[in-house]
Amino acid sequence: MIDGRTRVVGILGNPIEETLSPALHNAAFDHLALNWRYLPFLVQAAGLGEAVRAIRALNMAGVNVTMPFKEDVIEFLDEVDVVGEAVASVNTIVNHGGVLKGHNTDAAGFVRALIEDGDRDVAGGRGLIMGAGGAARAVAYGLAEAGAEALTIVNRTGDQAERAVGLLKGRFPALETEAASANGLDLGAGDIDIVVNATPLGKEDLKGIPSSVMEAISNKSVVVDLTTTPAVTAFLKAAVARGAKVVGGRSMLVFQGALAFALWTGREAPIDVMRKAIEDA
Ligand code: NAP
């Protein structure tokens, strides 16, 4: 029941129609009998500042932030956590009595998904990340923090890959890094332990995915696709055909959501309930 004590959280994005986050969080609130509700908010770029100020004005507990606002939202916040600052991407805002603090739970959520569902220890591993946007930068940070030895970032726009590597190097000077454009990628077969797709490519077919990325996938790799719909992408199917272990984007969605849930409510999130809520979505 919604009443005068209901705490409100939600998600700011554009488009927002396909988001799975309301199902995930509302199922968790119901399960723990918390008087909280999670709503989707379609925001126009010109209205982003107003939307963020509304968190304060409406005494909301916080929000998630999704595409395309994870970087642009930072200028409207009072504080940003270490990871959000390092990767210039915030996916969670917490309202501390009018002080809005931005967090990045994508990085830690990704690593938990990799460990729990990919059954993979990151320490000493070599990773290949396709994409250099906010999600790719968070994944790279998570892998570096968890002890990866080397990361290659390949992106359509080479400058963005360079920027991502520059941000990483500043924080993890010992990490071996390489930035590559799609055509300039030269990988030794079998050298890569973890392959991550952090682009919208590969949902229905493999169009646009560099052949060197596919060739880097072997039966020693774990492959993660951040795409959440479909749950099993063409890219993941192709990785399975090459003998790899695969993890879908819904796994990361659950773990980044669980961390946001804990930041807002101070309660541990019911992971299995969240998983089930989006299983059939
Ligand atoms: P973003 O900041 O907009 O970055 C998008 C990335 O994809 C950029 O590297 C971009 O390359 C690349 N890209 C886009 N269209 C492309 C195309 N046609 N060909 C080649 N490359 C293309 O977005 P993001 O926030 O990083 O999100 C990336 C993906 O991860 C999205 O699909 C998002 O839904 C997913 N995601 C999932 C989760 C989860 O919990 N599962 C969390 C966050 C994000 P350029 O630099 O060349 O433009």
Description:
The protein is α/β, with parallel strands linked by helices. It has 10 helices and 12 strands. It has helices at residues 21-31, 48-57, 82-87, 106-117, 134-145, 158-171, 211-215, 234-241, 249-265, 271-279, and strands at 7-13, 36-42, 62-65, 79-80, 92-96, 99-103, 126-130, 150-155, 176-181, 194-197, 222-225, 245-247. The strands form 2 sheets. Strands 2-1-3-5-6-4 form a 6-stranded mixed β-sheet, sandwiched between helices. It has a 6-stranded parallel β-sheet with strand order 9-8-7-10-11-12, with helices on both faces. Helix 4 (106-117) packs across helix 9 (249-265). The longest helix has 17 residues, at 249-265. It starts with 6 loop residues before the first strand and ends with a helix. The structure holds NADP nicotinamide-adenine-dinucleotide phosphate (NAP). NADP nicotinamide-adenine-dinucleotide phosphate is lined by residues 67-68, 70, 106, 131-136, 155-157, 160, 198-201, 208, 226-228, 249, 252-253, 256.
Rounded to the nearest angstrom, the distance between the terminal CA atoms is 23 Å
The chain-level mean pLDDT equals: 95
Shape: globular
How much strand content do the residues show? Answer: 15-25%
Question: What is the overall number of helices?
Answer: 10
Oligomer: single chain
Distinct ligand kinds: NADP nicotinamide-adenine-dinucleotide phosphate
**Count of strand segments:** 12
Strand order of the largest sheet: 2-1-3-5-6-4
Please mark out the parts with pLDDT under 50 across 5 or more consecutive residues, or reply none: none
Query: Helix content range of the residues, please?
Result: 25-40%
Radius of gyration: 18 Å
Largest sheet: 6 strands, mixed
Structural class: alpha/beta
* SSE sequence, one letter per element: EHEHEEHEEHEHEHEEHEHEHH
